[in-house]
Amino acid sequence: MLSKLLRKRQPVITSDLTKRKELAQIEQLPAHIAVIMDGNGRWAKKRSLPRIAGHYEGMQTVRKITRFANDVGIKTLTLYAFSTENWKRPKKEVDYLMRLPEEFMGTYLPELIEQNVQVQMMGNIDLLPDHTKRAITKAVEKTSHNDGLILNFALNYGSRDEIIQSVQQIVNKVQLGTISCDDITEDLISSHLMTKDLTEPDLLIRTSGEIRLSNFMLWQLAYTEFWFTNTLWPDFDEACLMDAIESYQKRNRKYGGLREEDVEKK
Ligand code: V07
């Protein structure tokens, strides 16, 4: 009896999601979605599991959301996987986290290639363990010819570090005389950030109920719509992503395709 009920329910959920996806595709989609994937530790704690079990489950969500975002037609998905502050966590946890890129790529690289996903990475890669570096470099290289969704991992990333690095590069150029002080514009600064080849995020999602940016893409998020949810990252699913996209589109609709800043200028 129960299995009959479950069998009936499944297609209803799927067709609802398909319908929502198709409706969203009629309107302008957020081209670039950035996500702070929070709540993995809390998810594990709720189940009396070690924190690393939450990270592992979070990795499964990365796979699920990447596939769905690509399917919807999102162009860029940036995921905050490891911050410069995360080194302060217990060594055992850090060691485990540093194994996840290998684990992820060992399992899903063929799938990403088949889905035409291009893997990119931002952050200070030099400070990562060699085995982590190798896994990421391999994934970036093997997917560099793909032209579908850009899956951009922020790993050992910190926005202030990124800004410092860009200021240093710019000052260097001024000292060398390649550029003058007057050449320093918003575009010039943007072109020295780790996101120089990407568009700015249209939508930022943070899971797990925290309402702050935690040193994530401070410059790039200047005009971005924010979506905060109490859902923990391992529980985040396709329907949650659709909720965020629909909310984004509703807000965009309000301004008749114009951004709020443009409306205010009129
Ligand atoms: C990590 C799983 C997702 C929740 C957030 C913390 C834990 C995927 C990757 C990854 C990174 C680079 C790459 C391929 C996969 C990853 C870390 C943590 C450090 F090329 N998930 N995930 N990396 N978590």
Topology record:
Elements: H1 2-26, E1 32-36, H2 40-46, H3 51-72, E2 76-83, H4 91-114, E3 118-122, H5 130-142, E4 150-157, H6 159-176, H7 186-190, E5 203-206, E6 225-228, H8 238-254, H9 260-265
Parallel strand pairs: 1-2, 1-5, 2-4, 3-4, 5-6
Helix pairs in contact: 1-8, 2-3, 3-4, 4-5
This protein binds ligand V07.
What would you note in describing this structure?
- By secondary structure, the chain is an alpha/beta fold.
- Helices cover 52% and strands 13% of the residues.
- The chain is built from nine helices and six strands; from the N terminus they run H-E-H-H-E-H-E-H-E-H-H-E-E-H-H.
- It has helices at 2-26, 40-46, 51-72, 91-114, 130-142, 159-176, 186-190, 238-254, 260-265; strands at 32-36, 76-83, 118-122, 150-157, 203-206, 225-228.
- A six-stranded parallel beta sheet has the order 3-4-2-1-5-6, with helices on both faces.
- Helix 5 links the parallel strand 3 (118-122) and strand 4 (150-157).
- The N and C termini lie far apart (62 Å).
- The model has no long low-confidence stretch (mean pLDDT 93).
- The structure holds ligand V07.
- Ligand V07 binds next to helix 3, strand 2, helix 4, helix 5 and strand 4.
- The site of ligand V07 has 19 residues, from helix 3, strand 2, helix 4, helix 5 and strand 4.
